[in-house]
Amino acid sequence: MSAPSSKGIPPKGLLRWFFRFPVWLYRLGLGGLMGKRFLLLNHLGRKTGKVRQAVLEVVRYDEQTGVYIVVSGYGERSQWAKNLLAHPDVTIQPGKSAIAVKAEPLSQQQSGDEMVRYAHKYPHAARSLSKLMGFAVDGSDNGYRKIGERLLFFALVPAGS
């Protein structure tokens, strides 16, 4: 999940710098320190056309298809999510190698299912991040499904698939 804030508003100031620090790790060739649960997203600014970068948590990775699932905890308020909706052909760097992918937004139902799956795999993270984004959390599958339906999930599908 992307970096949350306590009111569902993207962070500013020092907190923004803290959440952007991992980008510098990738730029220095140290992205491997982030582990397999994170990737670097290289995308185009929808207004400027300039390359932008964000480090995102991998919600799920499908080894058979090579598809990565990521989520914007701020929905369409997130700059990177807005940029993916405008320019879906991007590259990601899950380790040292870049991969060309197409970002495909998931349906509300698919997003709810992904959130439930994430909550089962990472219960503490799901509860903590949901609270930080301002959602009431009851810990049930239905509760997580409702949260997921309000978020914006993307499938990052390898180009040519």
Mean pLDDT equals 87
Beta fraction of the residues?
25-35%
| DSSP strand count | 7
What is the percent of helical residues?
25-40%
User: What fold name goes in the CATH topology slot?
Assistant: Pnp Oxidase, Chain A
CA-based gyration radius: 15 Å
CATH superfamily: Electron Transport, Fmn-binding Protein, Chain A
| Low-pLDDT residue spans | 1-7
Order of helices and strands: HEEEEHEEHHHE
Number of helices: 5
Oligomer: single chain
Cross-sheet strand order for the largest sheet: 2-1-5-6-7-4-3
Distance between the termini: 24 Å
The CATH class turns out to be Mainly Beta
Major sheet summary line: 7 strands, antiparallel
Structural class: alpha+beta
Structural write-up:
It is a single chain. With 161 residues, the protein is α+β, with helices and mostly antiparallel strands. It has one domain: Pnp Oxidase, Chain A (Roll), CATH 2.30.110. Helices cover 35% and strands 26% of the residues. Helix 3 crosses helix 5. The protein starts with 12 loop residues before the first helix and ends with a strand.
Brief write-up:
The chain has 161 residues and is of the alpha+beta class. The protein contains five helices and seven strands.
